[in-house]
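Section 5.1 Outputs to date
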Amino acid sequence: MKKPKQKCIVLIDGSNFYFKLKDLGLQKLLEFDFLNFIKFLSNDEDVVKYVGFSHKPSVAMVANCSSSKLLTRHELEKFLSEKRK
């Protein structure tokens, strides 16, 4: 009997991740293959949900996760105090 795939959650702080790659001297950072990186981290288990920003979503991640949520500016503004908007 085939063992069912487990589910995996991978959280990445994109800004810190980008600047750490930059500090390491890596090139072409905007071409980074997040889909293959996530597969590497998750050991090919199912990645359940992708949460990103609607401004520039990762098309590959949206297509390959079982669900996705793309955050809009309007949704994020709810979490800012009136003084900071």
